[in-house]
Amino acid sequence: MQQTDLIFNAAIIAVIFGLIFKSIVIVKEQSSAVIERLGKFNKICPSGLHFIIPFIDRKVDIVNLRVQQLDVGVETKTMDDVFVNLKVSVQFKVTREKVKDAFYSLDNARGQIASYVFDDVRAEVPKLELDDVFAKKDDIAKAVRINIAEIMEEFGYTIIKTLITDIDPDHKVKESMNRINAAKRDKEAAMEVAAARKITIIAEAEAEAESKRLSGEGIARQRLEIVRGFKESVEDFQKTLKNVSHEEVMQFVLLTQYFDTINNVGSNSKNTSILIPHSPGAMQDFQNQIIQGTFIGEKLNEFTDPDEEKDKD
Q: Which residues cross the membrane (predicted)?
């Protein structure tokens, strides 16, 4: 009898502990427990320790209240007939005050959200060309979030953020876009090179023009000094030799210049041979040419240096 009583008491204690265990519901943080009584909704238990009636009340499920993310891949076509794959990430959570609606309204909340994402993206992207899809992806994501948020709010879900994390056109389209961008960059580079070349050519032309101008001024001054020297030599000859004619003086000066020139040519030519026709007969021809050019002396007598005129003034 005593052994039977011990077994019976142990069974009773086990049943009592079982009932206590079945009556206790522990809910983790950021979660809510859905409690049904005899198959009908009874209450929502927030995080913490709760008690229910065993075998009458039942914990149906635990609803996660944390922010969740759903990634949806959508293939659609743009306005310029380019097929593109978009990856849309939807961040959502169950509204704490609407746990009952979120649990009982939708059987598959993720599938429902994905369906709305498909519908909204395929309604927004065909309004834009491919370049605008890249430029206005934030606007597309915002429009999708607004449309989904209005609908899912009725079912107890809050849409926090919608992001378009990837835009992947067809492979051939990407190659074409890369070629277009490369061509644009090459065009800009060619224009910059041409502009730099233009600046260089203009600078070189200006430098050459300035060099020629200065060289011309130097030659003009050199010739002016040569003429001045001729003039002074003629005047000195006329003052020293009273009976020498003007023509004879010019002949003497020009012959002197001729021999000096030949001497300079011979001394300056190092490895180069220069052939100059010269003979006694050539000297006579040169004399005749000098006689025919006697008018130069007359012009030299009439020559007046502009600097001397300024000094006289």
A: 6-27
| Res 16: pLDDT | 81
The domain of 111 spans 68-169
pTM over 0.85: no
Q: Which residues pair with 61 in a beta bridge?
A: 34
- Same-domain check for residues 54 and 74: no
Reduced 3-state DSSP string for 90-155? EEEEECHHHHHHHHHHCCCHHHHHHHHHHHHHHHHHHHCCHHHHHHCHHHHHHHHHHHHHHHHHHH
Instruction: Please say if the pLDDT value at position 304 is more than 60.
Output: no
Q: Which of 131, 142, 139, 138 is nearest to 165 (CA)?
A: 138
Residues 116 and 154 in one domain: yes
**Residue 277 confidence (pLDDT):** 61
Assess if residue 191 is contained within a domain. no
Q: Strand (E) positions, the chain?
A: 24-27, 31-37, 40-45, 48-51, 57-64, 68-77, 83-94, 157-169
**What is the number of structural domains in the chain?**
3
Average the pLDDT over 279-286 and give the result: 58
C-alpha dihedral, 101 to 103 to 108 to 114, nearest 10°: 50
Across residues 293-303, what is the average pLDDT?
A: 51
- Domain final residue pick, 22, 37, 64: 64
| 78 within some domain | yes
Quick one: angle between helices 295-302 and 171-240, nearest 10? 90
Residues 103, 159 share a domain: yes
Nearest CA-CA partner of 113 in 76, 144, 78, 75: 144
- Give the mean model confidence (pLDDT) for residues 26-42: 90
Cα 149 to Cα 249: distance, rounded to the nearest angstrom: 115
Give the whole-angstrom CA distance, residue 13 versus residue 44: 30
